[in-house]
Amino acid sequence: MCAASPGGPDATIVVTGEECPLNYVRVKLRLEQLAPGQVLEAFVDAGAAARNVPRSAREEGHEVLSEEPAEGGSVRVLIQKREADRVT
Fold first, then answer.
1. Is 2 a catalytic residue?
2. Domains in the chain, please, with CATH?
3. Cα separation of 23 and 31, whole Å?
């Protein structure tokens, strides 16, 4: 299992001002670029996006490490990419 770099997240994406579900689509595409275990820092709007983006990430098997208020009324969400699916 890869751990997040000690200095912070492995990647960052800002999807404030984007409508659902496009905000999660962009987060999902960015997660696909990361290695399993790496951490994505996502900034989303408070409200529906702050509920829906973490929920969608969990539903896809990723781990939501934290959700906290950020500048400008946005929410900072840290998402750890799930481990690769095993081929049997």
1. no
2. 11-80 (3.30.110.40)
3. 13
